[in-house]
Amino acid sequence: MEIEKKAPPPLLMSQREGRLVRLMGMAGEGLLFLVASLSVFAVLFIFYFIVRDALPFIKGDYIGEFFSNSKWYPTHEPPVFGALSILYGSLIVTIGSCVVAIPLGVCSAVALSDIIPFSWRQGIKPIIELLASIPSVAYGFFALVVFAPVMQSHGGTLLVVGFLIIGAPVLGIASLLVGDMLSDRFGDSNSGISWALIPGAASLAILVLVSWYLGGIQIISGTNALNVSVILGIMALPTIVSVSEDALQAVGPELRMGSYGLGATRAETLVLTVLPAASSGIMAAVILGIMRALGETMVVWMASGNAAIIPDPFYDFLSPVRTMTATIAGEMGETARGTQHYSVLFMCAFCLLIFCFICNLISEQVMKRNRMKLRGEI
Amino acid sequence: MRNKIMSVVAAAAVAVSGMFFSGAANADEKIVIEGSSTVGPIAKQFAEFFMDKNKGVNITVNESGSGNGAKALISGKCDIATMSRFMKEKEFKAAAGSGKMPVAHAVAMDGIAVVVNPANPVGKLTLEQIHDIYAGKVNNWKQVGGVDMPIVIISRDTSSGTYETFETKVMHKDPIASGVETVGSNGQMRARVQSTKNAIGYVGLGFVDKSVKAVLVNNIPATKSSVASGVYPIARPLFMFTDGYPKPGSTVFRFITMYLSKDGEAIIERIGFVPLTAYKK
Amino acid sequence: MNLNSRKVIDGSFTAFSGFSIAVMGIALVVLLGPIISKGIGAYIFKGTVEHREVMLDLFQRGNKKEIAREENAVQKARAPLYQAIDAFSSELEDLKKNNPAQGYALEADFAEFNKSVFKLLGPRPGQPEPQLQRDRFGQTRWDGALHVLGQAVNVESWDYSEGMGKKVFKPRAEMYKGTKLEPVFTQYLSEDYARKMLEPEWTFYYGFFTDVSYDAHFFGGLWPEVLGTLYLTFGAMLLAIPAGIIAAIYLVEYAGDTKLVAFIRSCISTLAGVPSIVFGLFGLACFIMDDSWFQISRTASVAAGSATLALLVLPTIIRASEEAIRAVPSSYKEAAMGLGATKWKTVASIILPAALPGILTGIVISMGRAAGETAPIIFTAAVTVGKPLGLDQIFSQPTPALPWNLYNLCTEHEAVDEIRHVQYGMAFTLLAIVLALNFSAICLRARIAKKLRG
């Protein structure tokens, strides 16, 4: 056997080799950068293509009535493109979903971060993840096939249950607080609970009266703003819970310990100390939740009733409404390119895009400030 | 553990690709049909029947509305455009501009039935009453001889062919009140009217069943014979458009002439439309 | 404030927070309950002999001899029913002559009745084969059969005497009292006898997942939709995974703290916030319109839909991968670098494998998202009715897909109520696919957490 004689590779690269490696490294990094900036191109092209097809409408004769008129007759001769009612529809279901999602979401986040024992948390997290992963069309299917008929047949009961879920705890805590104030003023120092009986009775009366009133309401059509608001609220919950929980966790134990040390109860610590400290993070969570509700298509398309009206009175959640997303989804398939109708749908998309863009910027800024604040840079 | 994951991924990949290839059908001919959701059921049933008889032909039916059907035919994206109205002059011009010659095949007649919930005692309405309800002038059933309850008006999406026919035959170009709910299809309209006691809506004759009640319009019931004889006031022919007259013997030709065959007639009749040959009777 | 009320408030606050978690759990149960319980009914149900015939005729599945034997038995059971009907037909002719008022009234109702029987049992032996597939068989499901049986036995009418109408059921047995049709209602159309005519058995119809559908989902299963969803999902992943992981590697390992990188990051979060319907419009304008530089196909196609979905899930994959790569202990990297590995080599052979489970979790979650999204594919990839596509057709042809067809079946199908079980089955199947993906992601993450804890 002959051992092949070969010079061992030099420890240092030759200058040429070194340059080559450096060059390839740079080329590789450039390639990586290109792929990484795909998202940038995507965003730019989304804006470009949406604006391009919305432009004929913006330049056209109808742009004035788009924001001022509430009549939507896109195929009538002559057409009327008053999107006010549609914008309002998006607004009202978004507000409705916030009413459902924010209290529940923030309370759940508080419970997850501070109240529930750690071992339980691992069991609850998957619930939130499953809620987040259910496809929107399945939510829509539920809203249309299950929820809407129930609403029509048992509308009053549903309203009462919904009202009690939100109203009873709120009024309960309120009457405790009022009772306490009363006892501070009029009674001796240890009779707070008995003083709470007076506002408690008043709240009970309110609960009963309102429930009685709500129980008598007949919901004419189950596909309405309320239906959609509830479902959208549930859809927005996971976002709100997980982002605000992160914000609450980020507050750190020092503040909590300090507050407990001063003798505050857990509720006082959370409401008066932790929540204010996490407020900007919770803001961001709410904004993300709003974006989710506003941009949702299938649920509103299937279950909102799609009537392009401003409800009368304007806070009437039992009236059918139509949102921008549903308008695009419902009408796009049947319009011809090059018409004003086609462009106006892109205009709606443009409005959505701009709104979400702004929301995103705000939430980003808020989160950034939050991070800096927690690091103590402000 | 990593190896395990990798092997699972690999197995999944193999399984999936196997599935894909086994699923790969080699259809030699395809017909793309696009257009009205009213003519859709006819096209779908024809397609089903046709594909059953002619293996190897793949027919896709898309129900995106008459306007879109015309658009697709003009741009060459479909072979057959199903339309619940005749082509507009504008569309003909656009077709001529891109070198297409739309040829109409009237495949069936469709009556639009005005439907209410079966619990509603109102059994007949005049055209004027329907017009006034949809124009928002009448908003309580009491005003048209029913019980005292508000009318929930349900209409179709403004771009559907059914809406257009309703608009021309009933509304005479007056705008429909802005408070109406809109739904996307005949089936959905029926479901809404069925579940809402005080609703009124309109659907193609083919969609009327026991779950809703078709009212008499000007005292004329919406039936196949009243539509075929032209007495029923809200009726229209349904079309399929091709680019040029299809070459006799070609697949498209055989498909589009199905409405003249016995099977075609029976299908049209069965799904609730009126065969054109019923005029002869 | 006094101590007692502070305690009570504290307690009720705790209770309220726990309650809000409970509401979330209840919402999940209420939402999934009906879809799962009724959706399973599309797979497991009491199938009649007609179902087994459908299987044999349309899918060549089942024991031919056994079904022929069953068919014989049920036809024997049905024979007296048909005889009674025929006997009444001739009696009706006499009745129309002797007592026209009753005769003609019954004739109209008799036609209705015959329709119900036809719907229940399908065409009679010897009758020409109907053109529509849905007419070639009787009720395939026992629950459907019971419903039709009710329609055959009772006349449904509305009583308007009190203003609003009330549904009134009038038994046909009374209407036909004394005629030759009467025994039909007293004997043959009872639930027990119907069992003999239809022989219901518990059936597990796995084909609901793997069969093509016939006659607009009256028979068969969801295979074209399932396959379409798989195509769209895997297509989207094929595009999004490499792009997402590479972007994450760049952002974590290469990018500095420059303005440009900050801009890229903010674009990623903007992309994550774009509403899905806007993605749909973008996909239409960018991948399908003739005047676009990126046109993939002239009509909606699987490829165009996949590309749209890929952009939609890109931010999710980037973020998950970024997090996973960041979680790799820096000691790994330092060790590799210390051994003289180049940066790229370190990334490819040390960091990526270590981060793989985390990246996979992100991928699996975004697969669930891509499979369930509807709005982006409405204009770019979806079609109502279609055959399963071959791989060669994905660049030119649209496909049915579970989410879109679920929407379509429950809003636009002409027989919305008759195919409720298919809608539930479809919703269930979609949910099962998406939830299985997410569940595996959850498990995967649990394992990583375990590993990290040692």
Q: Can you characterise this structure?
A:
The complex is a heterotrimer of chains A (378), B (281) and C (454). With 378 residues, chain A is an all-alpha fold. Chain A has a domain of 245 residues: Orthogonal Bundle (MetI-like fold). Helix content of chain A is 75%, strand content 1%. Chain A is built from 16 helices and two strands. In chain A, helix 5 packs across helix 10. Chain A starts with 14 loop residues before the first helix and ends with a helix. The model of chain A has no long low-confidence stretch (mean pLDDT 86). Chain B is an alpha/beta fold. Chain B folds into two domains: 143 residues, Periplasmic binding protein-like II (D-Maltodextrin-Binding Protein, domain 2, 3-Layer(aba) Sandwich); 119 residues, D-Maltodextrin-Binding Protein, domain 2 (3-Layer(aba) Sandwich), CATH 3.40.190. Chain B is built from ten helices and twelve strands. In chain B, strand 6, helix 6 and strand 7 form a beta-alpha-beta unit. In chain B, helix 3 packs parallel to helix 4. The N and C termini of chain B lie far apart (77 Å). Chain C is mostly helical and 454 residues long. Chain C folds into two domains: 157 residues, no CATH class; 231 residues, Orthogonal Bundle (MetI-like fold), CATH 1.10.3720.10. Chain C is built from 18 helices and six strands. In chain C, the strands form three sheets. In chain C, strands 1-4 form a two-stranded antiparallel sheet. In chain C, helix 10 packs antiparallel against helix 15, helix 12 packs across helix 13 and helix 17 packs antiparallel against helix 18. Chain C is elongated, with a radius of gyration of 31 Å.
Gross CATH architecture of the largest domain in chain C = Orthogonal Bundle
State the end-to-end distance of chain B. Answer: 77 Å
The top-level CATH class of the largest domain in chain C is Mainly Alpha
Percent in strands of chain B:
15-25%
- Report the portion of residues of chain C in β strands: 5-15%
SS class of chain C: mainly alpha
Question: Biggest sheet of chain C, open or closed, and with what strands and sense?
Answer: 2 strands, antiparallel
Order of helices and strands of chain B: HEHEHEHEEHEHEHEEEHEHHE
CATH topology of the largest domain in chain C: MetI-like fold
